[in-house]
Amino acid sequence: MAAANGVRRVWVGKNTLMSTPAVSAVIRERSGADGSKATGAFILTASHNPGGPTEDFGIKYNMENGGPAPESITDKIYENTKTIKEYPIAADLPNVDISAVGVTSFEGPEGKFDVEVFDSADDYVKLMKSIFDFESIRKLLSSPKFTFCYDALHGVAGAYAHRIFVEELGAQESALLNCVPKEDFGGGHPDPNLTYAKELVARMGLGKSDTGVEPPEFGAAADGDADRNMILGKRFFVTPSDSVAIIAANAIGAIPYFSSGLKGVARSMPTSAALDVVAKSLNLKFFEVPTGWKFFGNLMDAGMCSVCGEESFGTGSDHIREKDGIWAVLAWMSILAHKNKDSIDGDTKLVMVEDIVRQHWATYGRHYYTRYDYENVDAGKAKELMEHLVKLQSSIPEVNKIVKGIRSDVANVSSADEFEYKDPVDGSISKHQGIRYLFEDGSRLVFRLSGTGSEGATIRLYIEQYEKDASKIGRESQEALSPLVDIALKLSKMEEFTGRSAPTVIT
Ligand SMILES: O=P(O)(O)OC[C@H]1O[C@H](O)[C@H](O)[C@@H](O)[C@@H]1O
């Protein structure tokens, strides 16, 4: 919501619900364009202060960057919810036809207000064209040697996918899977991972049974609101941690937006350290932040970070203040186009997703990585498990005794702590952001309680091992990580506390 010439204005995306990236892009694009300033598009109460910080819920804030609210705001909102006694509902708000672009004016109790319905895909395409070289991607997509498949899982990405991949970049209609947005996501679970993106996974040759059809060279999926992504090659899964590292390693050469360099890169704490190795080698500023996109936003606003990502399938850059699923796919297409710029025509074999990842591992080493989720665990038991792990941290020799008793073939634990983050921009401190056990060879075990699980508690266990030796980078990751998994489960007494002999989901 923003105020233009003193008239309040609400923006609504035509038909497409409004995906997260589009909302953020629109706020950044439109903020100031008509002399107005966006002030927190997601807060439902009206703004009274055109162009300045807004006072809603009795809280002053200024969120014209379109990003998630910082902790200082959500903490205050939570505090206020404890004293709210009543709230007004605009029950007789007139209906607005959100399928037609245009501005409609209404008279409200506090004066006139406008509702502007716009085509959010227009704004988004414009933004993407200012970042990527569409011509070179179009050349790649038009090559008969390159095949592609995009699964929107019936989320909002479908509307953007058709416009960008088919209309702008010339992909075949048949490249789009589940790209008609549906309110119930077609009965599926719109989570872009190997468990839920079943059709894409099968099409890419990663399903349990062979479809008998040659899979496409490049595949990708989005979640319901199009802010997350999964990247696949033919019969090949790219971990989100590797994906952000590979984008960062290739950004300067492959993506015009970054041609003058990267301001810095960042990852969430549980995300693998693949990005750290790239940052070190390219001499880039690097940040490790707690889980949650808002922490990246501060760095970006301060001009300290260009590319960032999370293990939870979010990847993005400072073009907006949210993760952006379609941006990530365009970033990969740009890298593929760049690597193949001299071989698109003719008979030369193209460099494909798996080649790029293996080349990356050969250069920077490989971070074997897996995440175990224990969903809907008894909240009290989950808390006890975490307390047990924190208590253990007081004696590293004792931890090592247990570790060696479980497996003598793993490195020693060198340190253990609870991750705490001091924001370098505003100095705020976030405590208890996950329990870490760090090993001498760079391996890590991380335990966190999910902040988004809906029933009981969700325990997330992240397991990572770094392998520099090029002759050992081609193993199956579950096999390579099995000693560390064994240690994590026994050290945490997972089964004892949760009663679970296996996780709900393994990524
Ligand atoms: O706390 P978790 O369940 O692990 O969820 C973590 C995720 O939550 C939200 O989706 C945030 O937007 C992500 O940035 C974050 O990675």
From TrEMBL:
One of its GO terms (cellular component) is cytosol. The keyword Transcription regulation does not apply. One of its GO terms (biological process) is glucose metabolic process. It holds the Pfam family PGM_PMM_II. The keyword Nucleotidyltransferase does not apply. PROSITE patterns: PGM_PMM. InterPro entries: A-D-PHexomutase_a/b/a-I, A-D-PHexomutase_a/b/a-I/II/III, A-D-PHexomutase_a/b/a-II, A-D-PHexomutase_a/b/a-III, A-D-PHexomutase_C_sf, A-D-PHexomutase_CS, Alpha-D-phosphohexomutase_SF, PGM. Residues 2-87, 122-232, 241-342 form the Alpha-D-phosphohexomutase alpha/beta/alpha domain. Its cofactor is Mg(2+). Keywords: Carbohydrate metabolism, Glucose metabolism, Isomerase, Magnesium, Metal-binding, Phosphoprotein. GO terms for molecular function: magnesium ion binding; phosphoglucomutase activity. Its EC number is 5.4.2.2. It catalyses: O-phospho-L-seryl-[protein] + alpha-D-glucose 1-phosphate = alpha-D-glucose 1,6-bisphosphate + L-seryl-[protein]; alpha-D-glucose 1-phosphate = alpha-D-glucose 6-phosphate; alpha-D-glucose 1,6-bisphosphate + L-seryl-[protein] = O-phospho-L-seryl-[protein] + alpha-D-glucose 6-phosphate. Belongs to the phosphohexose mutase family. Monomer. Catalyzes the reversible isomerization of alpha-D-glucose 1-phosphate to alpha-D-glucose 6-phosphate. The mechanism proceeds via the intermediate compound alpha-D-glucose 1,6-bisphosphate. This enzyme participates in both the breakdown and synthesis of glucose. This is phosphoglucomutase (alpha-D-glucose-1,6-bisphosphate-dependent). The gene is LOC108822094.
